[in-house]
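Quick log. Single chain, no ligands specified.
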Amino acid sequence: MPRAAVSKRANASSGGLHPTEAYVLLPAAQGSLPAGTYHYVPRHHALERRAATVPEAMSSMVGTHTGDGPFFCLIAVTSVYWRETWKYGERGYRYCMMDAGHAVGAIRMSAARLGLCAQILPGVTSDTIEAWTGVADANRLADAEEHEYGVCMLAVYGPSMRSEIVSLVSNGRADAPPSVWYGVPNKHSSSHYRWDIVHAVSEATRRDVHSLPCQPEPSCRVEYALAPGPRSSPSSEEIILARRSAVDFTNRSITLDQFIQILWRAMPSHTHTPHDVMPWSARVHLFIMVYNVEGLQPGLYVLLRNEDARESLGRATSESSFVWQGVPSCVGLSLYLLKEMAQPDAASLSCEMSCTQSIAKNGAFSLGMVADLKGLIDHAGPCVYPHLHIEAGILGQQLYLEATSLGLGATGMGCFLDDLAEQTFGLRGKPEQQAWRTLYHFAVGVP
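-> predicted structure:
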């Protein structure tokens, strides 16, 4: 049989199911594209107009901008849970949020390549997203299990608008959406199974006007290089389009320089794009199982992406006899060796944590992304739960691209054993230990 053409997207998705949708709210015409509210159609890489206008409040948020002024638009990210839950059940909600994070990372990188800035707007509520995109109106006509839910809103803007975007960070009203909408969503399935826990979590974590009290000065990096220093390799565009999820690795080692380079790119303090799309400091950290990196002792390591977490995570793992030893060859990185292991033991444990997927032991290293879930929820409310998974997805998108740029392979692993992983990371036992939770697992190796 002839091989069929298969379309690929720039952003990774659990099971290739792509629950994420995107909408563009354009307040002023750009070239031949009139102002209006648009839905992105990935199959045709095109925009379809859902409304001829944008919400009245949108223009007042940043003032009036004509097509001759600085570029500005909003991009709303939504999710259709059913696309994941039909296959993955209650875990599908987590996958939807990580999928959205991968999409947000891809948007930020694309904006940087075009000389534009982008940032999530934490003040825009879930209700606002659904009202402004027409999702709330469409949901009234759709089967309940195929409803679309607002995840986050991004501002995409030219560097000259940086000061004006400050007010956007805490603004976002649900008033005056367009009154006329074009088109209706496609129907996915003729029958459904309702996962009540997914909808309960979704409702409990919806963003409201009191959520995420973070109002930083927006940063903007308008260039995107996949790694520091000169290199004779494909362009960033070619690397972005070449990104794939590896299906297996070859048991070959990677160099210490490659390992360090990948970790540097995971650090928001070292390189802004795409991490500067988040209006909060890094809250996701990496437990790394190393078993095939030249010049590095196999074992369990931790990379702190924000040193503020050192004390809390140290207390949480205090009963695990971890050595917390700095790594001299990784100067400048907050990388600590926690426990030395024999190479076969480290590889086998990585595989076991990842639902016995062999790819997790055939590579060079695997990692688990963790966060102080209880502490952050106590501080910022339940809406932090999806945002931690969004952050993990953004980080995963960056890890994919950096591995690809180095000629390596990578894969996100949604199937992992939470209990075993958290026990391995020293995060099981007393209540303070159990505050930290694992979110997303990842593996890197030689394809």
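Confidence is low (pLDDT under 50) at residues 62-67, 212-218, 222-232.
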